[in-house]
């Protein structure tokens, strides 16, 4: 029974590695080696995985749940860098330095992550230049995400940022039929991801509701006409939140 459990955990771990875009397509022997370098960590909702000042021990892959990577300003305001979900990797930048992480990481729900430990993975990179290029591409992707986020915060108002977020999470944004979006986070976390505060987010949702773009029932946001919201995002006249 112990061996069966061990094999099951190993299979689950390799499946997680295979499902990560950073590692997908690698030969099975490489995946097996990476699995031997990896540790699975379980987190309770609200539990921190690491803090910005912690020493980097490797990078992570979300096996289950969601992880909020954020920074906290001197005034205590939390700015979400990104929310990582099942199959996504993060903190690859820590492979290049022991200085720390780009921010704090906290579980938004009960979660499991895979820590691919730094020392062994760096040794593998030295033997696998193609994998090193993948890591560089992943880090470049995170940089592009950060730049896009900065542009959103500086060039777009809250209404446009919220419309963008809803369109991105809509299964069929060009449809004229109602579509449901489940908020898998608190409104406070969503507000932080959008670079605003809960009160402003609530007022913006109320404005959208009054314009018959959507309605909200608990954690479910129903877009009444996703195509119309796309038009709103692209310049449809919205009443500004004051």
Description:
The chain is an alpha+beta fold. The protein has 8 helices and 11 strands. It has helices at residues 2-19, 28-36, 118-127, 129-155, 158-168, 187-193, 198-210, 226-233, and strands at 38-43, 48-50, 58-64, 66-72, 78-85, 89-90, 104-107, 111-117, 179-182, 214-217, 220-223. The strands form 3 sheets. The chain has a 4-stranded antiparallel β-sheet. A hairpin with a 5-residue loop joins strand 4 and strand 5 (78-85). The model is unreliable at 236-242 (pLDDT under 50).
Helicity level = 40-55%
Poorly predicted spans: 236-242
Shape descriptor reads elongated
Largest sheet: 4 strands, antiparallel
- Rg over CA atoms, rounded to whole Å, is 20 Å
Strand order of the largest sheet: 1-8-3-6
The strand count comes to 11
- The succession of helices and strands, N to C, reads HHEEEEEEEEHHHEHHEEH
Task: Please state the structural category.
Answer: alpha+beta
Mean pLDDT metric: 84
How far the N terminus sits from the C terminus, by CA atoms, comes to 63 Å
- % residues in beta strands: 15-25%
- How many helix segments? 8
Which helices and strands occur, and which strands form pairs?
Elements: H1 2-19, H2 28-36, E1 38-43, E2 48-50, E3 58-64, E4 66-72, E5 78-85, E6 89-90, E7 104-107, E8 111-117, H3 118-127, H4 129-155, H5 158-168, E9 179-182, H6 187-193, H7 198-210, E10 214-217, E11 220-223, H8 226-233
Antiparallel strand pairs: 1-8, 2-7, 3-6, 3-8, 4-5, 4-7, 9-11, 10-11
Helix pairs in contact: 1-2, 3-4, 5-8, 6-7
């Amino acid at each position: 029974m112990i061996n069966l459990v061990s094999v099951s955990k190993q299979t689950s771990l390799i499946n997680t590695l295979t499902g990560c875009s950073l590692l997908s397509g690698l030969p099975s022997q490489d995946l097996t080696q990476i699995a031997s370098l990896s540790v699975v960590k379980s987190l309770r909702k609200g539990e921190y995985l690491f803090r910005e000042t912690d020493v980097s021990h490797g990078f992570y892959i979300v096996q289950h749940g969601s992880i909020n990577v954020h920074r906290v300003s001197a005034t205590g305001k939390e700015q979400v860098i990104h929310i990582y979900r099942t199959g996504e990797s993060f903190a690859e930048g820590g492979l290049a330095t022991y200085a720390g992480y780009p921010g704090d990481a906290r579980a938004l729900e009960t979660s499991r992550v895979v820590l691919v430990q730094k020392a062994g993975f760096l040794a593998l990179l030295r033997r696998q230049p193609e994998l090193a290029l993948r890591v560089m591409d992943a880090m470049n992707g995170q940089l592009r995400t950060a730049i896009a986020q900065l542009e959103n915060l500086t060039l777009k108002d809250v209404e446009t940022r919220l419309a963008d977020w809803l369109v991105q999470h809509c299964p069929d944004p060009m449809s004229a039929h109602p579509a449901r979006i489940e908020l898998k986070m608190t409104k406070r976390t969503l507000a932080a991801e959008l670079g605003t505060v809960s009160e402003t987010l609530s007022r913006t949702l109320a404005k959208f509701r009054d314009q018959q773009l959507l309605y909200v029932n608990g954690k479910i946001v129903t877009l009444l006409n996703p195509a119309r919201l796309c038009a709103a995002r692209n310049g449809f006249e919205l009443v500004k939140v004051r």
